[in-house]
Amino acid sequence: MIRSVFLFIPFTFLFVTTNILAQTMEEGPVAGATFDSTWVWEETEIYFDFGESRIRPEGDSLLTDLQQAFVHRPEADYLIQAHTDAIGTDGANLRLSANRANAVAERLLQLGVDSSQIRLETFGESRPQAENDTDEGRQYNRRATVRVQEKRKMFWMSGEVVDKDTGEGIPAEIVIRSREHLDSASTDTTGKYLIPVPDNTVIGIETFAPGYFFHSEMFKARAIQPPSLRVELPPIKPGEVVALHHFYFVGNQDTLLPRSEPELYRLRRFMEINPGISIEIAGHINLPNNPPVALTSWNYNLSVRRARRIYNYLIEEGVERERLAYIGFGNWNMRFPHARTQQEQELNRRVEIRIPGEGEVISSQDTIIPDEKFLQRRLEQWKQE
Fold this sequence. Notes:
CATH 3.30.1330.60; four-stranded antiparallel β-sheet; disordered N terminus; 7 helices
């Protein structure tokens, strides 16, 4: 049996066990091989009085909340594992744990859980989670654990990470995300990796390596057509400008929408694994078919505030202030000055980062007072590459 640990969204996860099927060879996982995985969504414990199988009011509330949280998942199972303390005979305690399991199951049935979703396991006093020589310990042992879990099909996805300039494999970190799944892996010294992914699911893959810009993409992972991804990471070079396309702001505000969180994580991770670099953050707005906005205008200030929002986030996450600077460019450098489509407008409304050149001193906009000539010179500097 191969055991893996996965993270889930929402973060009420516990753990996952995976059972490799015959397609996986004895020496290790094979690209494209499928296996079953038990996803544990949540686990809660119901405690009982001494010698009792009656559910307490607080336990009833926990069961009600659990059923309401997972009523939308008829495919989920409710595994009930019941226990006792060590007072009494083995046979009596085994019967008592069975009564406790049945009481929990009966309450779940009353709440609307289908009987086909419920499984019972009884252990009597054989699996204590605390010592039985104190009242407190015995209370912890008088319990029924309710685990909400689900079977999922997974498969092993292969890929490699290479240097974009040389084509040589590089050591890298791989992160896989879906709406309900988060996992990571590392490449070997040649840049190759295997990682388990949920079958028939849209996933995002993120790639990080020291000395390189990060990469992300999304696709539908299917075991019947297992992808083998080749990611070409561009090396970090002074003067290089990279657009961060997945920052989403509330309209006409500098407030980031929740779907920007993965991009925030990617940028923070990039700074963590490259402690020797500094970046300048630039904010842009979408105002097509208009002349460059005045530096005293609200629109220009919006581009500054959006860049500062990312700057402040990184500082709050522990990135040293001296490694960061920010500036706003208003609509002075739109990708599509006459944008017609929604996509073109989104590409205008962006955040970029730039690696300063050797010996270059950069300052944040709260320490400088730009005029039009200054801003034009800075734009030319950003466009040099």
